[in-house]
Specification:
five-stranded mixed β-sheet, three-stranded antiparallel β-sheet, 24 helices
């Protein structure tokens, strides 16, 4: 594709010499995901920020995290990421696919991270997601004539490195200690021991470890919680499962539609999800908690079915892990309210990054560490504890690794289709191999989910608090 006219005009008006670098092809002979390409080569990317005084352009390397607090200190303002709809309008008005990493674009005031100036030559987002601009440092500096050069970003790689799970509790305690020295004992008591599991959740966990538990036992437990019972019946009656006839009871939902194991894990996931308050705010573009849970669980349901029977992990544990995969999001909002607000603004300003580097930057820990720790304290199955802790670590090879990898694959597949806030990145072939999962079947699974979004949204709406 040709270079966008607005970009070409800006470069020619300043006599900037440049070359074009096409996106490489992946194993399927398709252009690499734009986010992946930018990150792989450390190309410069642009972010639009704004407040009531107007809009600015920020240029950083795609392998760094934008520090929104540093930007606001530099400018003496309260800037936040421009909304996604406004960014699309900006791109459409200039015939762009993405925001080019070029100062002076559209006459906007520009901040540039000083790390970019240490390079002899640079690759820049061109505004076309199939090619990058290649220019030398002297030409880049010529474009920076009126830009503010400052230190506003930090490398992503150190923030993405995972530590041993054995160090989780130490890091959690350290984060809490930093959060407030004066209330550390009270925070620990509130956080690591509370909120207590509901009676319903405790009874369901007891059923899980009871080898003699049957359908009647499960139905009785669920029926004692009218709200939970209504949600399970609503789930079974959803068009997504196309159950014949009307679902009239929990017993009916178990026997005719979902099965014992499915209802057991579904009820547990719902009970735990209600144990913490849903945050009233979140980053723009972020799927609601129950939407993420339902989409991921449905994708994992299809992925497990696509795995050969002899290598297939336990369906119930995989499904429950999918439902609970983002439980740490609720914990963050509950424990660290001021930092959660900062996280929301940082996530909006760093759509090229997943949440873990942002959380490590702000708190020193991640939601995965918090959720797996709490699940362990609640005596949840080890498969779930491992799945939540290592869901973003595709190289993990310990016991129950397949449950973590299923979440990893499901999340990447959904993100590649624009469901959620974060970059579109490839799934390593090694992960498919470890799961004995055919990549083509995985793609077919997520396509089925995409075709069922209306039905899944209906389920998520029924689960959301009113």
């Amino acid at each position: 594709m040709p270079l966008p006219t607005s970009v070409e005009s800006l470069l020619n008006s300043q006599n900037i010499h440049y070359d074009l670098a096409a996106a490489p092809l992946d194993a399927n002979n398709q252009p690499l995901w734009h986010d992946q390409h930018l990150r792989n080569v450390g190309a410069a990317k642009a972010v639009l920020l704004e407040d009531d005084r107007g809009r600015i352009l920020v240029v950083i390397s795609a392998d760094t995290l934008l520090d929104l607090n540093a930007v606001n200190r530099q400018m003496g303002r309260e800037l936040r990421a421009t909304g996604q709809d406004a960014v699309r309008q900006f791109c459409d008005s200039h015939a762009l696919q993405t925001v080019p990493a070029l100062p002076k674009l559209a006459g906007l005031p520009t901040l540039v991270d000083k790390q970019l100036l240490s390079r002899e030559s640079l690759l820049l987002d061109s505004g076309n997601d199939e090619q990058l601009l290649h220019i030398n440092r002297d030409d880049f500096q010529q474009v920076l004539e009126d830009a503010i050069i400052c230190d506003i970003a930090m490398p992503l790689e150190p923030l993405e490195q995972d530590i041993s799970a054995a160090q989780d509790q130490e890091q959690i305690l350290g984060a809490l200690r930093s959060f407030t020295q004066l209330r550390i004992k009270q925070r620990l008591e509130e956080t690591l021991e509370l909120p207590p599991l509901s009676e319903t959740a405790q009874r369901i966990i007891n059923l899980r470890v009871d080898p003699n538990a049957d359908i009647s036992d499960l139905a009785q437990v669920v029926e004692t919680d009218p709200s939970l019972a209504a949600q399970v019946v609503s789930w079974a009656a959803s068009p997504y499962y196309s159950a014949p006839g009307k679902i009239r009871s929990i017993h009916d939902a178990i026997v005719r539609v979902l099965g014992f194991d499915m209802v057991l894990n579904l009820a547990l996931g719902l009970a735990l999800g209600r144990s913490l308050n849903m945050p009233k705010e979140g980053p723009e573009g972020y799927l609601g908690y129950w939407q993420q849970s339902v989409y991921t669980a449905a994708t994992i349901e299809g992925l497990v079915t696509a795995i050969p029977r002899e290598h297939r992990p336990t369906f119930g544990m995989a499904y429950l892990s999918g439902l609970l995969h983002n439980f740490g999001y609720l914990i963050l909002a509950e424990i660290f309210p001021p930092y959660f607000s900062q996280f929301c603004r940082m996530a909006e300003a760093n759509p090229h990054s997943y949440h873990q580097p942002i959380e490590r930057h702000l708190l020193g820990i991640t939601r995965e560490q918090l959720s797996s720790c709490l699940m362990s304290l609640w005596s949840m199955p080890e498969e779930v504890v491992v799945a939540l802790r290592h869901q973003n670590n595709p190289g993990y090879q310990g016991e129950h690794h397949e449950y973590a990898k299923l979440i990893f694959v499901a999340q990447r597949l959904l993100m590649q289709r624009g469901l959620g806030l974060g970059p579109k990145l490839d799934i390593p072939d090694s992960v498919f191999a470890d799961l004995h999962l055919d990549p083509a079947k995985a793609q077919a699974t997520v396509e089925n989910v995409m075709e069922s979004l209306d039905d899944l949204d209906h389920i998520a709406l029924q689960l959301s608090p009113r």
